[in-house]
Amino acid sequence: MITLAALVVLLPFAGAFAGMLGGRRLPQPWVACVPVAVSTVLAAIVAIAVWRSPGERAGTLTLIQTGSLPIRVGLQVDGLSGLVGIMVCCVAVAVQVYSVAYMADDPRYPSYAAFVSLFTAAMLLVVFAGDLLLLYVGWEVMGVCSYFLIGHHWEDRANSRAAVKAFLVTRLGDVGFLFGIFVLGVAAKSFTISDVLARAGSMSHTTLTVAALLLLCGVVGKSAQFPLHTWLPDAMAGPTPISALIHAATMVAAGIYFVARVYAVFWLVPTALAVLGIVAVVSMVGSALAALAQDDLKRVLAYSTISQLAVMAAGLAVGARSAAIFHLVTHAAFKALLFLAAGCVIHATATNMLARYGGLRRTMPITFWTMSIGFAALVGVPPSSGWFSKDAVIAAAQHGALHHGYYDISGQTAAWFPVQTFQPTTLPSAPGAPSVSFEYTGTLGAAGHQLPSGVAWTIYIGLLLTVALTAAYSARAWLMTFFGEARGDARAREGPKLMTWPVMVLAVPAAILGFFGLGAPELRPELVPSLLGIVLAAAGFAGVWLVWSRDPARDPARMLGPVRPVFAKAFYMDELYALVIVRPVQALARGVARVDRVGIDAAVVGTARATRRLGGTLRIPQNGNAQSYLTALLGGVVVITALVVIFK
Amino acid sequence: MHLAFPLVTAALLFSAGVYGVLARRNAILVLMSVELMLNAVNLNLVAFDVHLRDRLHGGQVLTLFTIVIAAAEVGLGLAIVLLVFRNRRMIDVDRLRSLAESEPAKSEPAKSEPAEPSTAEREAVK
Q1: Average pLDDT over chain A, rounded to whole?
Q2: φ and ψ at A323, to 5 degrees?
Q3: Of A532, A535, A544, A549, nearest to A472 (Cα)?
Q4: Does A617 touch chain B (CB under 8 A)?
Q5: What are the contacts of A617-626 at 24+ separation with CB within 8 A?
Q6: How far apart are CA B84 and CA A369, in angstroms?
Q7: Do A376 and A390 contact (CB within 8 A), yes or no?
């Protein structure tokens, strides 16, 4: 099992390695696609094996001695990693196949495909890692891969800037993440995830709070939540398949996945969950509003990604771990579908601007139908996958809000994701015997946790508001792209088969994945939240529809009036950061450069100049006249002799 | 004979030689001055040899060596002078300044290496 998991991780890595070294001598599309496809098959085998006999399997591949604390290169397979692993592989295969056609004319296709493979391998490493440090390796490799892929078209200055921004902003969170890992690892005296989770209960509350909040920094950075979300919309500078990969399967999913992976730690710290909930509410409502006014199809989808990730984060904050992971998986399906379909639209019309689309329903029927399924899932139209998963999150949030912030999850079973955590059977009286005090069970042992009532209500209302807003911006993008008169190039046609096929294949899980959630009681739709969700989504859609149908040629966002530029600029967050952080840092950098130039450099250059000038005076006697040299020699001899005679 | 006479004579000869080496401009005269100095030394050697009554006459032997070396040196020196004369049409020692640093070296030391005529060459052209 562990060998299989290791192969799942290593195959895309080997593919990336071969593709990078081989260059154009190898049949690049095959080198790119085949390893990931084999990985998908293996990941499916792993997932099925875990499904048939649930439980955690861990194995150590090798042990790296560092002198003090050995680093265990170990993998861990359980329901959670099996499910997310197969999701990552599926999306990666779709993206690779799609890229063969989408990037056919690109001169740097080999390096592109290799980085996609490496990206996939890194995400799979995060998913299957059994050790926090190993997980961190995958986490950082993803960061650097995203940098290279977002800046793929680096000839344009804006693209390379976007890549640097993505790298720096996520790095800012990663600093906290790394320290969080250290705090946890040092407190648990082991970096192995299962050990850390087992000993989490015996740690002091301060340690846990510090660790959880530090880890949240990394999660917020990677998953593009509120204070560190600004890199994601700019990351649209990368090729569209990359956006699909980053937004659906890798990178942003890593943050949510990580919280779910070490959920026992967060579960013990209600403060961290409350912070996560507030961050999620701000992110989901704010970015949904921003998505409402974007002119660029890809940016609409980018803000919707932030919003949907915030829904998952809110699910985690209210204790609905299964629902959050369920939403992660369905979101991966429909967001990959949306991005790849958007890539088809962009490929056909050669523009990102919503205002230049229109009427594509007739010329691009396949893209229209698949993208409609994607938008339906995003909005949460009943039988689609997004409806089931979003409803599960809303239901959990509603329970908490109605019970004054107390989230009771003792009823959740391990049908889907066997949650690996501890159950305090006796009070941990003796610190020396934590293994006696805690035992593994299949369910979340702690019966519930308490958030402030206000936070619980905020999360619930934020979720409902987001449902309506999601419907509104999805409707706007959908209507402006596919309906009305053709405003741009009317000769747009469907892309090549290699592009339409992955999109059609992805449409299937986007449509029906939700029914798999019926197997778990906590994921089944509940009457009140689901009805509320449908009504709100319908209201959002109807609002946009009414505005749009009055004049199909114009942008429905005009009704926003004076707040439209505020939304379009995403509440001026970038400008704020530029004012508060970027400019002072640049001024400081200029100051440092100046001090270096007039202080340190001047000292060095001045020393050289003074030495040369001093040497110039000595150079005067060296005039080439041998007789003057001899005269000086004689003079010297006389003087020395005289001195010797006098001072003998 | 008192030792002072040859010593004073040798000292005078040596001083004349030194003066010639340091002050004369003609290279041949400089060479001749060098010979004067050598011969002053020879005189000293012979004088002390006699004065000390050396049984092996080391001073005289050394004088013979010096004479041979002086002959070789003059041969070499004259050949150099001849070549200098062929190249430059003059043998003024104080105008042969190829030993000087080729340029006052403003800022870039690398620049002064190639293709710039040295001071001596420029003066030779004049």
Answers
A1: 82
A2: -65, -40
A3: A544
A4: no
A5: A619/B101, A619/B104, A619/B105, A622/B99, A622/B100, A622/B101, A623/B97, A623/B100, A624/B96, A624/B97, A624/B98, A624/B99, A624/B100, A624/B119, A624/B120, A625/B93, A625/B94, A625/B97, A625/B100, A626/B93, A626/B96, A626/B99
A6: 98
A7: no
Closest alpha carbon to A556 in A568, A566, A544: A544
* Gap between the Cα atoms of A317 and A274, Å rounded: 7
A431 phi/psi in degrees, rounded to 5: -65, -20
Rounded CA gap, A12 and A40, in Å? Answer: 10
Task: For residue A192, give the DSSP letter.
Answer: B
Highest mean pLDDT, choosing among A14-18, A405-409, A429-433: A14-18
Say what the ipTM of the complex is. Answer: 0.74
CA distance A577 to A589: 16
Q: Are strands A57-64 and A71-77 parallel, antiparallel or unpaired?
A: antiparallel
Q: Name A209's Cβ contacts closer than 8 Å, sequence gap at least 6.
A: A269, A271, A272
Specify the residue for token string 């401009």: B25
- Do A121 and A38 contact (CB within 8 A), yes or no? no
Instruction: Determine the pLDDT at residue A435.
Output: 31
Query: Token pair 């936070």 is at which residue?
Result: A455
Residue A59: strand pairing partners: A75
Kindly state the tokens that stand for B22. 């340091």
CB crowding A505-515: b at 16 or more within 10 Å, else e? bbbebbbebbe
Least confident of A31-40, A293-302, A396-405, B105-114: B105-114
Q: Which residue has the higher pLDDT, A631 or A558?
A: A631
Hey, are the CB atoms on B18 and A634 less than 8 Å from each other? yes
Query: Residue A524 and residue A535: Cα distance in Å, rounded?
Result: 19
Inter-chain touch B97–A616, beta carbons under 8 Å? no
Q: Chain A contacts of B96, Cβ < 8 Å?
A: 624, 626
pLDDT of residue A161: 86
What is the phi/psi pair of residue A192, to 5°? -70, 135
Helix axes A385-402, A497-512, angle to 10 degrees: 40
Confidence at A611, pLDDT banded by 50, 70, 90: very high
Given an 8 Å threshold on Cβ–Cβ distance, is B100 in contact with A624? yes
Q: What is the DSSP letter of A245?
A: I
Note whether B94 contacts A: Cβ–Cβ < 8 A: yes
Strands (E), A175-236: none
Predicted confidence at residue B19, as pLDDT, reads 93
Which residues in A lie closer than 8 A to residue B93 (C-beta atoms)?
625-627
% residues pLDDT > 90 (chain A): 10
SS3 percent helix, strand, coil of chain A, rounded to 5, is 75, 5, 20
Query: What kind and span of H or E run contains A64?
Result: strand A57-64
Q: Which amino acid type is present at position A398?
A: Q
Question: ∠ CA(A248), CA(A250), CA(A256), 5° rounding?
Answer: 85
CB contact under 8 A, B97 and A624: yes
Contact A460, A394 (CB under 8 A): yes
> Are A381 and A319 a contacting pair, CB within 8 Å?
no
CA dist A53 to A7, A37, A175, A414, A415, Å? Answer: 21, 25, 38, 12, 11
By C-alpha distance, which of A13, A5, A181 is closest to A92? A13
Q: Do residues A248 and A332 make contact, with C-beta atoms less than 8 angstroms apart? A: yes
How far is CA B81 from its chain centroid? 12
**Is residue A384 helix, strand or coil?**
coil
First-to-last alpha carbon distance for chain A, in angstroms, is 95
All residues of chain B having their beta carbon less than 8 Å from the beta carbon of residue A612 are: 105
From the centroid of its chain, how far is CA B115? 31
Of A622, A624, A630, the CB nearest to B21: A630
